[in-house]
């Protein structure tokens, strides 16, 4: 049997380059940057450091999965493209696609050089093929008719699709029917020549987390369920993605039993600031993650880049939760950065605010005391975290969603307390004959949403060896599923429901007043944020 040559790749995504010509440190810029989880004004220095590190690597193939710029202005594109050319001058082969942040349909974006943002011309979608043709299309075996997607031979064995997913022709991200047929026919021709196929695209094909499926369902690729079946059944088992800014490795099997791995990489200019190193040998993809360690030409108040990225991200999420208790517009701006639509935040502002106030007062010790029967924990078992704020723990969970590989395995107090609370909620719902599956289809309990944030029982997100041909039985052997559940199902539902019924009966004389207060809060919210709720 002929030995297959090894293939090396570096995967980067979501640069979100921002030219300083657009303005920094002005009143309008600060408003634009408020709640932004990624680097903006410092993106040039961060990306130059990352590219210098990549340039010194022995790997010759660099692929970029889209979102070159923040908002599609010509200066940011020009400066980012110069960085790509610099990599090519170092001997790297650079393959790139663009995505939704790289153009504006109306031809306008903004600059922030004064107290108020100003409109300026943007790049349009039809401009992009000419701008980026040197990074894939010029050497392609086949280019889709829009000039944004292409198919390239990497070596004598492997070929790769660069698949632009910014629109599917029906108002969503994804691939048009014509593009799907191009993928199928191109893959068929390549497989007839015994080529091995890979792909990179922008939008996620497999959700990195059940929680992401809930808050970021509109950020999944349009038609992703059909598209991943097409890719898997046409010989593409490994796809590199971006967009979510989540560092994750997930997988699915097509109905025909073919594996598809979705290897998502974090934003290069945001926390945790990873890029991927990929080595494919003996039909196995060996994947590792690398932080930016090259010195950055900025002083971050004595902190290194990773500390700065962490603090910026932590501050953004913390600001979001603080704003939930008192400032819905700020909450909406910040929550948009973690895939929650602004309209949703404004629509439910009347509920978000009181819940936010409660969350900002709760401690882990409070919740632990509610869950003793489910967890079996003594006060000594959680003494080290009892005074921690629940909001800080929520911040940590959100960060783990983006970083991957949650650290709280089923033996930890954090895991037990969180799952214990979810089991109590589940018991309440079952008592009133409202299974969680009726609230959120596809999930049988609240814990199914939360456990993946606490602990990764699937494939390790940071580093993994992925067999490109494997069965569902075989995949279990490479998953981190050695732990058994350590939390009991809750029986508190009937008691809690009975207590609530008694409380309601006692408060019946006051129910009209309570209803008036709730209705007033709802109406005030609808009136106050009517334009925002309507998306105006």
Overall description:
With 536 residues, the chain is an alpha/beta fold. The protein has helices spanning 27-33, 43-55, 74-89, 128-132, 177-192, 210-215, 224-232, 305-324, 328-335, 342-347, 349-359, 364-370, 372-375, 390-403, 413-431, 436-439, 447-454, 472-475, 493-506, 511-528, 530-533, and strands spanning 7-12, 61-64, 93-96, 108-111, 118-121, 142-143, 150-153, 158-163, 196-201, 236-241, 248-253, 259-264, 274-281, 284-291, 464-467. The strands form three sheets. A seven-stranded mixed β-sheet has the order 6-7-8-9-10-12-11, covered by helices on one side. Strands 3-2-1-13-14-15 form a six-stranded mixed β-sheet, with helices on one face. A two-stranded antiparallel ribbon has the order 4-5. It starts with 6 loop residues before the first strand and ends with a helix.
The number of distinct β-strands equals 15
Q: Count up the helices.
A: 21
Strand neighbour order, sheet with most strands: 6-7-8-9-10-12-11
Class based on secondary structure composition and strand pairing: alpha/beta
Rounded to an integer in angstroms, the radius of gyration calculated over CA atoms is 25 Å
**Distance, first to last CA:** 63 Å
Unreliable runs: none
pLDDT average, as an integer? 91
Helix content: 25-40%
Strand content: 5-15%
Largest sheet: 7 strands, mixed
Tell me, what's the shape? Answer: globular
